[in-house]
Every structure is written in C-alpha cells, then in structure tokens.
C-alpha cells in the first residue's frame, strides 16, 4: 500500500515550528498534539458510515453516523504518547494500548519491554502511533506484535519519516496503510532523521 503524505499547509507549518531547536517542551507537546489531531482527521476519512433517523427540533432527518469497527490507539513508548491526546480529542471513545520498545544503542535493534492492550483489540481498527519513523525497526516489530495477537486492521501514523524507515515498514507490512506528514532526506550515522527534529521523546518530556 502506498504511504499517504499529509502535506496540509497547517500540518507543514506546525512541523516547521517543531523542527526549530529553540522550540521548548511545552510548545513542542502542544504542536505534536495538534498535528496528531489533524492527521487523525485525515486518517479517518475512509471510516464507514451508516444512515440513522434522528428527530431534530424541527423534523425527522435521515443522517449518518460512523459504523463498523471501534478504534484503538497504540502509541509506541515513549514518543508515541505525545500523539495520544490529539487523537483522543477527535475520537474520545477509542481505547488506548501501549507498546514499549527500546533501541539497543549499539545494534539499533528494537527490544520489547512493555505491552498492554485493550482486551478486545482483535476486533478493533488499530492506529499505531510514533512521531518518528527512522529505521522502521520499532514500527515493524510493534505491528508484528499486534498481528501475532490476531489484529487485522492496522494503520500507522508518524509525523516525520526517513526513506529507509518507510521502505522497511511498507516492505514488512504491505497491508498496513502508513500516514506520514513529512518525508525527510535520510538517516545519519546515529540513525537520527536528517533534518528531522532531534529526539522526539526527549523534546516532548524535556529530558534533554
Ligand atoms: N527517533 C527520534 O526521536 N528522532 C530521530 O531522528 C530518530 C528516531
């Protein structure tokens, strides 16, 4: 499945502010949340609708409501947490699971240290969240963990992707629709996205 690049002007503008090294944690968190909300709006564009009849104060009306599978948001810890609030602002009924993966500083391989998911995750439409798609290792593994549990309908949302990560993810999981707001140039020797925005987790939580 081809990745969808969400280049809405509001998203692009907010990403420029995110990238600025002088943007502090409070503003960074607010921006990530706003971008996630805008991305959620786009990524839910294909949700099925069903017709219902509602009585307005004036007359009966045939209108539409969302039907089909319920949603779950699964941030990859820790940077993915920054996207949850914005997603929930648009879909407050969604359940939230968490997958914790860390990158081995030498091999850059992801290792699982935490996984807590809604009981009925298998029947939900699952949106995996991670603002930075760098090597793609964490996203590939997190999605594989969900598939191993029987989850069938998965979307992946990231703010910035490196071509290397996008390639790895779409090759490993061609059935997963990937949404990204910006495709950057490359990874550097430390596997940071260039130009990127630095370490998203550190910038969200002020740990640097
Ligand atoms: N994770 C980040 O937070 N930033 C990068 O550039 C790469 C991975």
TrEMBL record:
<feature type="domain" description="Phosphoribosyltransferase">
    <location>
        <begin position="6"/>
        <end position="207"/>
    </location>
</feature>
<keyword id="KW-0808">Transferase</keyword>
<comment type="pathway">
    <text>Pyrimidine metabolism; UMP biosynthesis via salvage pathway; UMP from uracil: step 1/1.</text>
</comment>
<dbReference type="GO" id="GO:0000287">
    <property type="term" value="F:magnesium ion binding"/>
</dbReference>
<dbReference type="GO" id="GO:0004845">
    <property type="term" value="F:uracil phosphoribosyltransferase activity"/>
</dbReference>
<feature type="binding site">
    <location>
        <begin position="198"/>
        <end position="200"/>
    </location>
    <ligand>
        <name>uracil</name>
    </ligand>
</feature>
<dbReference type="InterPro" id="IPR005765">
    <property type="entry name" value="UPRT"/>
</dbReference>
<dbReference type="Pfam" id="PF14681">
    <property type="entry name" value="UPRTase"/>
</dbReference>
<protein>
    <recommendedName>
        <fullName>Uracil phosphoribosyltransferase</fullName>
        <ecNumber>2.4.2.9</ecNumber>
    </recommendedName>
</protein>
<comment type="similarity">
    <text>Belongs to the UPRTase family.</text>
</comment>
<dbReference type="GO" id="GO:0005737">
    <property type="term" value="C:cytoplasm"/>
</dbReference>
<dbReference type="InterPro" id="IPR034332">
    <property type="entry name" value="Upp_B"/>
</dbReference>
<feature type="binding site">
    <location>
        <position position="193"/>
    </location>
    <ligand>
        <name>uracil</name>
    </ligand>
</feature>
<dbReference type="GO" id="GO:0006223">
    <property type="term" value="P:uracil salvage"/>
</dbReference>
<feature type="binding site">
    <location>
        <begin position="130"/>
        <end position="138"/>
    </location>
    <ligand>
        <name>5-phospho-alpha-D-ribose 1-diphosphate</name>
    </ligand>
</feature>
<keyword id="KW-0342">GTP-binding</keyword>
<keyword id="KW-0460">Magnesium</keyword>
<keyword id="KW-0547">Nucleotide-binding</keyword>
<feature type="binding site">
    <location>
        <position position="199"/>
    </location>
    <ligand>
        <name>5-phospho-alpha-D-ribose 1-diphosphate</name>
    </ligand>
</feature>
<keyword id="KW-0021">Allosteric enzyme</keyword>
<dbReference type="GO" id="GO:0044206">
    <property type="term" value="P:UMP salvage"/>
</dbReference>
<dbReference type="GO" id="GO:0005525">
    <property type="term" value="F:GTP binding"/>
</dbReference>
<keyword id="KW-0328">Glycosyltransferase</keyword>
<dbReference type="InterPro" id="IPR000836">
    <property type="entry name" value="PRTase_dom"/>
</dbReference>
<comment type="function">
    <text>Catalyzes the conversion of uracil and 5-phospho-alpha-D-ribose 1-diphosphate (PRPP) to UMP and diphosphate.</text>
</comment>
<feature type="binding site">
    <location>
        <position position="78"/>
    </location>
    <ligand>
        <name>5-phospho-alpha-D-ribose 1-diphosphate</name>
    </ligand>
</feature>
<dbReference type="InterPro" id="IPR029057">
    <property type="entry name" value="PRTase-like"/>
</dbReference>
<dbReference type="InterPro" id="IPR050054">
    <property type="entry name" value="UPRTase/APRTase"/>
</dbReference>
<feature type="binding site">
    <location>
        <position position="103"/>
    </location>
    <ligand>
        <name>5-phospho-alpha-D-ribose 1-diphosphate</name>
    </ligand>
</feature>
């Amino acid at each position: 499945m081809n990745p969808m690049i969400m280049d809405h002007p509001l998203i692009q503008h907010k990403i420029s502010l995110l990238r600025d090294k002088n943007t502090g944690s409070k503003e960074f968190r607010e921006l990530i949340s706003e971008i996630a909300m805008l991305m959620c709006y786009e990524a839910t564009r294909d949700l099925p609708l069903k017709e219902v009849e509602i009585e307005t104060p004036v007359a009966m009306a045939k209108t539409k409501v969302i039907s089909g599978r319920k949603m779950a948001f699964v941030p990859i810890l820790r940077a993915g947490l920054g996207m949850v609030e914005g997603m929930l602002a648009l879909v407050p009924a969604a359940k939230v699971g968490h997958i914790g993966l860390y990158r081995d500083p030498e091999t850059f391989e992801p290792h699982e240290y935490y996984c807590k998911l809604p009981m009925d995750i298998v029947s939900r439409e699952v949106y995996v969240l991670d603002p930075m798609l760098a090597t793609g290792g964490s996203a590939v593994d997190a999605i594989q963990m969900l598939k191993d549990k029987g989850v069938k309908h998965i979307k992946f949302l990231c703010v910035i992707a490196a071509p290397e990560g996008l390639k790895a993810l779409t090759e490993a999981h061609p059935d997963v629709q990937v949404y990204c707001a910006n495709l950057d140039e490359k990874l550097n020797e430390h596997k940071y996205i260039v130009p990127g925005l630095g370490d998203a987790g550190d910038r969200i939580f002020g740990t640097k």
